[in-house]
Amino acid sequence: MNPQELKAHYDRDGFLVVPQFLPDEDFAELKRELDHYIQTVVPTLPDSDAFYVDKSRPETLKQLQHMGGDPFFREYANHPRWKELAELLLGEEANSRGAEWFNKPAGTNAPTPAHQDNYYFNFDPPNVLTMWLALEDVDEENGCLRYVRGSHRQGRRPHASSQVLGFSQGITDFGPEDEANEVCMSLKANDLLIHHGWTVHRAEPNRSTTRHRPSFAIVFQGVSCQIDDEGRQRYEAEMRAQHEALGLKN
Ligand SMILES: O=C(O)CCC(=O)C(=O)O
């Protein structure tokens, strides 16, 4: 697809797939750096930056955020290849919100509740997107992301506390109409997904006992985005309450 077609698809569906996004060497380097970070940095991180399904089992690591303390990931979050594509889709200059990592460890029950990223970010205008790179093959068995096509055009949906660490809020009125428009995003390693801040998405648990489902993500916000302070404060209070209920330090 040429740039105009990519943007037209993104604007229409609220998401996009870019197969084999990185050159092979860059993809291998990213995976190496992630492995190194997980081995050497993650054991030193506070509870708020590294989430586990079961903290007593390091192999159940499921989410990393605030990775900018690491020089490689601080710089990588502004990688031109990612940023230029984000700016094309957003239609304006953009700022990176930093690198994140999402996993569904094999043999664990860790679904992603249906949610909209901009319910967490609270940007107005909602000109924000998430770029999510599959680090291994992804399919129905190991917990593909499921997008509700066109849902970004309907704006904010009601959310409530989800009890899922890392995704403190889930949509409360997710229903059959959403399911009818849902697409399971089966991917090869190094395929990139991009979704709009209002695109409704979720993932089922990883049903495989042998295949993890790791991914690497960067969120970009257009320079026109302003924070809706009231929404942001509400979200942060809800997240802190969830962490306290789960016995995590904020
Ligand atoms: O990896 C997942 O299961 C969820 C990721 C997600 O919701 C996101 O990147 O916005």
Q: How would you portray this structure in words?
A:
It is a single chain. This protein is α+β, with helices and mostly antiparallel strands and 250 residues long. It has one domain (3-245): q2cbj1_9rhob like domain (Jelly Rolls), CATH 2.60.120.620. The chain has seven helices and 15 strands. It has helices at residues 3-13, 24-40, 71-76, 80-90, 117-121, 176-180, 229-245; strands at residues 15-18, 50-52, 61-64, 94-102, 112-115, 123-124, 128-134, 145-148, 159-164, 167-171, 182-184, 192-196, 201-203, 215-222, 226-227. The strands form four sheets. The chain has a seven-stranded antiparallel beta sheet with strand order 1-12-7-14-4-3-2. A hairpin with an 8-residue loop joins β2 and β3 (61-64). The protein is globular and about 45 Å long. The chain starts with a helix and ends in a 5-residue tail after the last helix. Bound molecules: 2-oxoglutaric acid. 2-oxoglutaric acid (AKG) binds at residues 102, 112, 117, 130, 132, 145, 201, 203, 215, 217.
